[in-house]
């Protein structure tokens, strides 16, 4: 079995020119936690997940090492949670999205897809063909398709 046989062809995605606000709206509307970022040619240029948003809105700490190699932790910002949450909405998606994208080819074997999902501990994998986004595969997709005939 290959990736294109189990992938979802209708991919919820966001354009590279979009704001984080549009990402959050898609998260809420579709009950998802991550999506690919594409350019005008539908090429994958990033991936944004709920973890990327969490890192931005969470409390930031700064670490300072002095000349005697002692580590002092200093609170990194005076901005409260609500202000950070408001600020993120107007940012461009690529300001917080991951640009190193883990993806699979449309003709990769399902064993490879399962290995990538497991080893990288990610929930979804974009699928591309000839450099263009053509689908997405989740852990659940792999489990359902792999075991439906066995059960």
UniProtKB/TrEMBL annotation:
Report the domain of life of the source organism.
Answer: Bacteria
Q: Which residues form the CBS domain?
A: 7-67
Is Kinase set as a keyword in this record? no
Q: Does the keyword DNA repair apply?
A: no
Task: Could you list this entry's UniProt keywords, alphabetically sorted.
Answer: CBS domain
Against InterPro entries, the record matches this protein to: CBS_dom, CBS_dom_sf, Diverse_CBS-Domain
Would you tell me the protein name for this molecule?
CBS domain-containing protein
Could you tell me which species this protein originates from? Terrihalobacillus insolitus
Instruction: List the top taxonomic levels of the source.
Output: Bacteria, Bacillati, Bacillota, Bacilli, Bacillales
